[in-house]
């Protein structure tokens, strides 16, 4: 008998479903064997609102959850982009903040599966928690960062989520997550450079500090360098991120260890140390172009000698850069950028009575992925 019910649901035969559910014996069997949940979820996955109303008429609870992951109907509807079903379930009073076994909500699932219509609908619901985190510490906002999905990120920000929210386990925010290559998930692993750049710019324009640090004093620049995210390094440098933040200067009491016996002890050169230790020659060049005080590395000759021995191309690059006098042209650019700091976009976006070539030079147009 129960097989006939599921067959009727699959065929969207409302009359037959109504007849079968009217049988007391079948209803009792379905309830006792938890088959009612399966019937409900099948209707949700079919996106059949009339059948849902029929189940509700026969006493099926819309707050029913599956027995494996404890996901409710709203989460299943969000996963497959069934907007009509999602709207009807919300009308019926389903919990929009329900968390399944891994702590995810319908918001998380809509973000993870890039169902923006459903995401927008859920964010507009009264009482929805936009900043709720799953058991791994990721809020919906942090998930958009993992996916490099700036469109979903904008939906959440416009709805009023906390841009500065941090993962309660790691203490990292959305900007750290965007630039951290190891945090990229699914679509985020295939995201274009433009997607990453748009996420960074969106977060910065909505108030997130480009130099914000995690509890260990790691800035977004350090995250990008450590995970070899050259695109993010380039964009952060163009946006005039600091080489040494206030948090870092207060927390850097230990030298940077290249290995057990080789250390770098100048906090101002931390990003350069990281790039050198990761053998990121392109990032070393970009840091020097962007104005890091690389000449101070001359006082740590042991680092250059070590790199000459273990990785000659890097040793050659450091010798070529460190002992080359800073040009007056670059010194002027460094001075201007140090004056404008985080308002560097003013140079690009404001009509200035300066030659275009000068504006481009001040904007680090010569900084590119090498």
Task: Describe the fold and architecture.
The protein is mainly α and 370 residues long. It contains 23 helices and 2 strands. Helix content is 54%, strand content 2%. It is elongated. The protein starts with a helix and ends in an 8-residue tail after the last helix. The model has no long low-confidence stretch (mean pLDDT 91).
Can you give me a brief rundown of this structure?
By secondary structure, this protein is mostly helical.
Features:
single chain, 370 residues, mainly alpha, two-stranded antiparallel sheet, 2 strands, elongated
Q: How are the strands of the biggest sheet laid out side by side?
A: 1-2
Instruction: Report, as a whole number of angstroms, the end-to-end distance.
Output: 68 Å
**Low-confidence segments:** none
- SSE arrangement, N to C: HHHHHHHHHHHHHHHHEEHHHHHHH
Total number of β-strand segments? 2
Helix and strand content put the structural class at mainly alpha
Helix content: 40-55%
- Overall average pLDDT: 91
Mass-distribution shape: elongated
| Number of helices, counting only DSSP H or I runs of 4 residues or more | 23
Percent of sequence in beta strands: under 5%
Task: Determine Rg (CA atoms, Å).
Answer: 27 Å
Main β-sheet description: 2 strands, antiparallel
């Amino acid at each position: 008998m129960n097989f006939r019910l599921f067959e009727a649901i699959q065929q969207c035969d409302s009359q037959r479903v109504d007849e079968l559910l009217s049988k007391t014996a079948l209803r009792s069997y379905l309830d006792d064997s938890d088959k009612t949940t399966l019937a409900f979820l099948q209707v949700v996955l079919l996106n059949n609102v009339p059948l849902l109303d029929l189940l509700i008429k026969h006493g099926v609870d819309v707050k029913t959850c599956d027995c494996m992951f404890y996901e409710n109907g709203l989460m299943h509807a969000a996963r497959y982009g069934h907007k009509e079903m999602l709207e009807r379930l919300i009308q019926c009073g389903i919990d929009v903040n329900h968390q399944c076994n891994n702590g995810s909500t319908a918001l998380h699932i809509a973000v993870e599966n890039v169902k923006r219509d459903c995401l927008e609908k859920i964010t507009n619901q009264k009482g929805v928690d936009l900043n709720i985190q799953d058991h791994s510490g990721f809020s919906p906002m942090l998930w958009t960062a993992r996916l490099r999905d700036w469109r979903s990120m904008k939906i959440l920000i416009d709805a009023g989520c906390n841009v500065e929210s941090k993962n309660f386990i790691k203490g990292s925010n959305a900007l750290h997550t965007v630039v951290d290559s190891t945090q990229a998930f699914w679509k985020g692993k295939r995201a274009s450079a433009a997607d990453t750049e748009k996420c960074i710019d969106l977060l910065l324009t909505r108030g997130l500090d480009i130099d914000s640090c995690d509890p260990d004093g790691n800035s977004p620049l350090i995250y990008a360098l450590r995970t070899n995210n050259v695109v993010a390094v380039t964009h952060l440098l163009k946006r005039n991120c600091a080489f040494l933040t206030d948090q870092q200067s207060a927390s850097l009491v230990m030298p940077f260890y290249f290995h057990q016996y080789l250390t770098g002890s100048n906090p101002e050169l931390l990003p350069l140390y990281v790039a050198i230790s990761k053998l990121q020659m392109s990032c070393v060049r970009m840091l020097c172009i962007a104005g890091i005080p690389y000449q101070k590395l001359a006082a740590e000759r042991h680092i250059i000698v070590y790199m000459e021995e273990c990785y000659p191309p890097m040793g050659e690059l450091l010798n070529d850069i460190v002992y080359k006098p800073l040009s007056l042209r670059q010194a002027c650019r460094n001075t201007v950028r140090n004056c404008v700091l985080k308002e560097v976009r003013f140079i690009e976006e404001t009509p200035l009575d300066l030659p275009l070539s000068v504006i481009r030079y001040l904007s680090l147009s010569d900084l590119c992925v090498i």
